Model the fold of this input.
Amino acid sequence: MLISVGLIALGVVLTVIGSNILVDGASTIAKKFNISDLIIGLTIVAFGTSSPELAVNIMASMSGKTDIAIGNILGSNIFNVFIILGIAAVIYPVRVQSASVWIEIPMSLLAALVVGVMANDVFFDGSLITGNTIVKNVITRTDGMILLGFFAVFMYYTVYASRNTKEDLKDDLSREMHEELKEKPLMTTGRATLFIIGGLVFLYFGSDWLVKGAITIAKLGGLSDAIIGLTIIAAGTSVPELATSAAAAYKKNSDIAIGNVVGSNIFNVFFILGLSASISPLPFSSPTALIDILMTIFSSVMMFTFVLAGRGRMISRSEGVILITIYIGYVSYLISTVA
Done:
């Protein structure tokens, strides 16, 4: 058990370090090739904060551990809203000002609804036979391609909207990270290449150890792969988002705090889940699957309600406490299902 816990902890550390040095290296190379700040922010930096989830999901999908793959995405999105946004609001009330976020919040709700439909669309998807078990609810490869299509449309819209409104990279998560990159002297091409290679290696081994450690704990503790994915792995892979939003809230930069969460949730569903399903169909065999999907949708509805309909269009400290409390109740429910 201790070895497995150590593997998970080391896996989280490696994936976080790997994502950071990968972004540093890739951003340097991009700047040297005169790639625009907008493209760097929307692709490399966005990929960097979600690369732990991506690495874990690819590893889980290739290993046939689909419950971990789907649990990681649903769990990360639930964790992002209830814990990360909740903590950010407790640190400093989150008020939305950037125009782009007004489009992204409904888009994150759409992403959650699309997953709910796809995972329960037996009429169109039919059944998937895994061994001697027939699983009716599954996100198929076709669904995965559709999700990737949504992601392509979202990226196109984001680039188009950013250019039309002439927003530079100062008002978003990617913009703050880019400013930090500008303050650092560009490293040499050779060093940047080593950073990219090293980041990929760290991500590979980190995600591999994280998945293996989680599988072992699940077996020893009588927990399902889905519950491990929804809790331990989801929280571990969300560390970059937690650090970014907490720091942004401390600096009273609300747009970055909420933009980080919203952008990550959209990226997780449309790109990471889409890619994972394209690699291997993702059946829903967890007994809590329906609750997990509903919680994902509910988290987006809560964020939508607090931000768009709340007083002053912001998430207050008291509402942040409510979000955190809901998550504690949700995890308690998951634990009670195996008690």
Remarks:
- Confidence is low (pLDDT under 50) at residues 166-174.
- The beta strands are 94-95, 128-130, 133-135, 138-139, 282-283, 314-315.
